[in-house]
């Protein structure tokens, strides 16, 4: 499979143009291509550079939504969690969670004990593992440093751990394999309807060159940007969530741990030799392109963990990396951010134009299936049935050593693969989305030097480009991403 990047020599007419290469757009492109529609997908940045590389990386039904009585939402996501485990086992490890309970907390042991049994049943009765109730003695064996005051016990239940950006990239590889034209660094500028099609003005972001394509159907899958896109009729409420990465030797948890903070919950999620801590949920009205982890966000998360594990006493010096993402939630002006529904919305706002918003990583495949069903109705043509729930995302040999939950080994072969077969054109594309090396390794700057050398050879960079890529990468701080350097 060869991949186009900067110079999209795509033919001009498509059945479907998907705007946005996050998880939602990628899922739609894969489904549309598999059903026989001529499909193009563009993203103004790198694929997954938006929310879809900034999540908690969980495949989950949502134990919190169960407590809110949203059974339908939990059932839907729990089933999809199992589907992803089937179609992409390399990106869906069973992950046990220990949820300690305390006297006089809203999360009582008996309620949670019943809740986790219902949770197992909602996954079709065969969750990724069987839930159980743990005694106080057993939790302290598993989590020796845990605060014991008011501790009554714990429940242990299962969800899945994934790698959000890799799920996007492997979904796109599958879409491309089924014939979709996939291009990063191309921005949707505007469109107008003409003879039953949308004539779309697109701009290659490095060269600023404009070009046009026509599509019978256009899908706005731009996540947090979706209410700003021309023709969009969607209204969002954006909330920010941050994550911190610390060394697992500082917080040696065998399973994921849940921390209750009122009605909210935070997690410590084991990730190889690291632990991911998160997340927050606060209203956001700053620029969408650069959400970052503020010192207050970091302090809040560290305080929650330190309250639960007082002897651990994590400080900002323990933080290896951070990321922050924006939840594109279907608007609800009222209520706390954590209470806003995570439901998705698929809306044909104009003939042949859909706004697809909300939902979560876990439910992306279902969102795609429902969207392509609507496209089929609109086009009034018989399409092949949806097969995304049963067709593996990749052949097993295609994922070995280049795609997984933990970062791959740092080596030139992997970088060659990302440049030649996964659309990577900038240093940050490899360091962040393709590999997570940026987040995982303390010495990521040394790794970046080597990767820049390798990418320079593969992509024929001049020494100026190599220097600019490195400088740009150096300028990235834990607080987010700068804009992509222009060539
Ligand atoms: C903190 C946090 C934690 C989360 N944790 C989980 C979790 O553990 N499990 C789970 O299931 N879900 C989780 N979610 C939810 C999930 O991450 C999101 O629902 C999902 O990633 C949204 O994907 P998307 O494709 O809609 O948006 P995005 O990933 O943001 O993709 C939109 C894309 O559109 C592109 N774009 C924008 N404008 C244009 C334009 N004009 N032209 C071309 N392209 C454009 C952007 O560059 C971007 O790549 C979490 C979300 C957050 C914020």
From TrEMBL:
Domain FAD dependent oxidoreductase intervals: 15-359
Gene Ontology CC entries for this record: glycerol-3-phosphate dehydrogenase (FAD) complex
Pfam families the record matches: DAO (PF01266)
Keywords for the protein's UniProt record, in alphabetical order: FAD, Flavoprotein, Oxidoreductase
GO molecular function terms listed in the Swiss-Prot or TrEMBL record: glycerol-3-phosphate dehydrogenase (quinone) activity
Enzyme Commission code: 1.1.5.3
Class of the enzyme per the UniProt entry, highest EC level: oxidoreductase
Catalyzed reactions per annotation: a quinone + sn-glycerol 3-phosphate = dihydroxyacetone phosphate + a quinol
Cofactor: FAD
Tagged with keyword Oxidoreductase: yes
Gene3D superfamilies referenced in this protein's UniProt entry, alphabetically: Alpha-glycerophosphate oxidase, cap domain, D-Amino Acid Oxidase, subunit A, domain 2, FAD/NAD(P)-binding domain
GO biological process, one term: glycerol metabolic process
Family to which this protein belongs: Belongs to the FAD-dependent glycerol-3-phosphate dehydrogenase family.
Stored PANTHER family: ANAEROBIC GLYCEROL-3-PHOSPHATE DEHYDROGENASE SUBUNIT A (PTHR11985:SF35), GLYCEROL-3-PHOSPHATE DEHYDROGENASE (PTHR11985)
Protein name: Glycerol-3-phosphate dehydrogenase
Source organism per UniProt: Bythopirellula goksoeyrii
Gene name linked to the record: glpD
């Amino acid at each position: 499979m060869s991949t186009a990047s900067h110079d999209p020599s795509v033919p001009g007419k498509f059945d479907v143009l998907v705007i946005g290469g996050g998880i939602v757009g990628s899922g739609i492109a894969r489904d549309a291509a598999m059903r026989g529609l001529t499909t193009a997908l563009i993203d103004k940045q790198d694929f997954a550079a938006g929310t879809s590389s900034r999540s908690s990386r969980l495949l989950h039904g949502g134990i919190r939504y169960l407590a809110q009585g949203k059974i339908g939402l939990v059932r839907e996501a729990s089933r999809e969690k199992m589907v992803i485990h089937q179609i992409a086992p390399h990106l869906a490890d069973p992950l046990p969670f220990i949820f300690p309970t305390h006297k006089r907390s809203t999360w009582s042991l008996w309620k949670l004990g019943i809740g986790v049994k219902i949770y197992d049943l909602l996954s079709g009765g065969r969750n990724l593992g069987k839930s159980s109730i743990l005694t106080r003695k057993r939790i302290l064996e598993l989590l020796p440093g845990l605060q014991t005051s008011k501790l009554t016990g714990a429940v242990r239940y299962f969800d899945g751990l994934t790698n959000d950006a890799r799920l996007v990239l492997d979904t796109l590889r599958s879409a491309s394999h089924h014939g979709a034209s996939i291009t990063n660094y191309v921005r949707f500028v505007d469109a107008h309807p003409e003879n039953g099609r949308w004539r779309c003005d697109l701009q290659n972001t490095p060269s600023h060159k404009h070009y046009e394509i026509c599509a019978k159907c256009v899908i706005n899958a731009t996540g947090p940007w979706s209410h700003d896109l021309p023709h969009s009729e969607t209204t969002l409420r954006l909330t920010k969530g941050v994550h911190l990465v610390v060394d697992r030797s500082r917080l040696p948890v065998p399973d994921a741990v849940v921390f209750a903070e009122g009605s909210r919950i935070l997690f410590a999620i084991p990730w190889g030799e690291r632990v991911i801590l998160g997340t927050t949920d606060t209203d956001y009205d700053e620029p969408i392109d650069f959400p970052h982890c503020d010192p207050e966000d970091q302090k809040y998360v560290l305080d929650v963990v330190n309250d639960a594990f007082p002897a651990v006493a994590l400080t900002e010096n323990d933080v290896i990396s951070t990321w922050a993402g924006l939840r594109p939630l279907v608007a609800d002006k009222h209520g706390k951010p954590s209470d806003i529904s995570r439901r998705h919305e698929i809306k044909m706002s104009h003939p042949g134009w859909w706004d697809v918003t909300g939902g979560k990583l876990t439910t992306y495949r279902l969102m795609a299936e429902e969207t392509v069903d609507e496209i089929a109705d609109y086009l009034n043509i018989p399409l092949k049935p949806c097969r995304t729930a049963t067709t593996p995302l990749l052949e097993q040999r295609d994922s070995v050593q280049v795609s997984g939950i933990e970062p791959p080994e740092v080596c030139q072969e992997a970088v060659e693969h990302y440049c030649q077969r996964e659309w990577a054109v900038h240093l940050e594309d490899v360091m962040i989305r393709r590999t997570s090396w940026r987040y995982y390794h303390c010495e990521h700057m040394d790794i970046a030097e080597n990767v820049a050398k390798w990418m320079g050879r593969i992509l024929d960079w001049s020494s100026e480009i190599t220097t600019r890529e490195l400088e740009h990468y150096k300028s990235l701080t834990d607080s987010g991403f700068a804009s992509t350097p222009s060539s």
